[in-house]
From TrEMBL:
This is Glutamate 5-kinase. One of its GO terms (biological process) is L-proline biosynthetic process. The gene is proB. It is found in: Cytoplasm. The keyword Kinase applies. It catalyses: L-glutamate + ATP = L-glutamyl 5-phosphate + ADP. GO terms for cellular component: cytosol. It is an enzyme of class 2 (transferase). Residues 292-375 form the PUA domain.
């Protein structure tokens, strides 16, 4: 663990907590493990407790967007299934049955507080493809304007193996960015991030994290609950996505939701480190899987990382993997270190004949389309 992170162990009351407490618009994500009984069905008491805490925040004039997992877990019992199914088709079927039950419970409990909820089911494309995320933003903004509390989940029934978040932690971070939230609160079944799995003797709470990139020494390897998916790994990834986009993030257990939203000394507070950037680039950096890599010479590494230039064929010394134009690829230096990720303009098969050559030469020899850049700077995100 870094100095910055370890300095926060056991302390609390950070400026990040104050930011969460005063956030006008807050995205709250709750995991399956916080909504279900040990047997796996939805636990009405836990749902009710969460709703009551969120309703108080909403009724105090703050906007809340709830990202709720639990559709698959809620669908298990009605289908006579024990434990989370492994195959995608059964997960999709369980989600189809469970999502309705989940929203029904939320709807009924929020109605007691006079709050109307709206269901929003998103796919990866909705928060990554520009035309679609504009649409998703418009819908969310309108719901909030109308005083509705949006309840978001991944559209599990249509999500495919290749294009799917699979866990709602990263989805929540992207939603926080999408709706221009002032804070992100991740609710799980553990009170905080600990220096090792909470069952490990001597594991201590980490109260404040100055930079989510600096948690190298923290052991997050042990899997989470039987119904949850990503464990701590995806929660830290979510914190990294949100904080790097300027959104302070707080992680705690669902039972501490009210305290967390009031700025209490609970959980782990991750300070915002970066500035807002286009949603598409967030996806590129944190959610996409690179389909191959391009090896850059030292000049191209400098051009891309320091001058924020587009990648030209002249700076490429090697092509690895099999990819098509438009897919994400890693840009690596000669030692194999990833320095950036971008959407490549050419198929892998077209590149070997182009690399190392100046674009002017390529244009005159092969035609105008070969004079284009290999990765445009607008479709490129620096990762170091
Ligand atoms: N260092 C750690 N600190 C806290 N929890 C950890 C740590 N390492 C692993 N975990 C596990 O992560 C789990 C939370 O992830 P998960 O089960 O996916 O929850 P959710 O359903 O809320 O998304 C915890 O229950 C805990 O078992
Ligand atoms: N969309 C899925 C969420 C996947 C999941 O289990 O996420 P989580 O409990 O947040 O680790 C569902 O509703 O079941």
């Amino acid at each position: 663990m870094s100095e910055a992170a370890s300095a926060g162990v056991g302390s609390g009351g950070s400026p990040t907590r104050a930011q969460v407490a005063t956030a006008r618009r807050v995205v709250v994500k709750v995991g399956s493990s916080s909504l279900t009984t040990p047997q796996g069905g939805l636990d009405p008491q836990r749902v009710a407790a969460l709703v009551d805490a969120l309703a108080a925040v909403r009724l105090a004039g703050r906007e809340v967007v709830l990202v709720s997992s639990g559709a698959i877990a809620a669908g298990l019992a009605p289908l006579g299934l024990r434990g989370r199914p492994r195959d995608l088709a059964t997960q999709q079927a369980a989600a189809s049955v469970g999502q309705g039950l989940l929203v029904e419970q939320y709807m009924q409990r929020f109605a007691r507080h006079g709050i109307t909820v709206g269901q929003v089911l998103l796919t990866v494309e909705d928060v990554t493809v520009q035309s679609k995320y504009r649409n998703a933003y418009r819908t969310a903004a309108k719901l909030l304007e109308l005083g509705v509390l949006p309840i978001v989940n991944e559209n599990d029934t249509v999500a495919t193996k290749e294009i799917r978040f699979g866990d709602n932690d990263r989805l929540a971070a992207l939603v926080a960015h999408l709706v221009h939230a002032d804070a992100l609160v991740l609710l799980s079944d553990v009170p905080a991030l600990f220096t090792a799995h909470p069952d490990t003797p001597g594991a201590r709470r980490i109260a404040d994290v100055a930079d989510a990139d600096e948690l190298l020494g923290v052991d997050i390897s042990r899997r989470g609950s039987a119904v949850g998916t990503g464990g701590m790994v995806t929660k830290l990834e979510a914190a990294r996505i949100a904080t790097s986009a300027g959104i302070p993030t707080l992680l705690t257990d669902a039972g501490s939701a009210a305290q967390a939203l009031a700025g209490g000394d609970v959980g782990t507070a991750f300070a915002a480190t970066g500035k807002r950037r286009p949603t598409r680039l967030l996806w590129l950096a944190h959610v996409s899987d690179a389909q191959g890599s391009l090896v850059l010479d030292a000049g191209a590494v400098r051009a891309v990382t320091e001058r924020k230039a587009s990648l030209l064929p002249a700076g490429i010394t090697g092509v690895r993997g099999s990819f098509s134009a438009g897919e994400p690829v890693d840009l690596v230096d000669v030692d194999g270190r990833v320095v950036a990720r971008g959407l490549v303009s050419y198929d892998a098969a077209d590149l070997p004949g182009m690399i190392g050559q100046r674009t002017g030469t390529l244009g005159s020899e092969l035609g105008a389309e070969y004079a284009r850049v290999v990765v445009h700077r607008d479709a490129l995100v620096v990762l170091r």
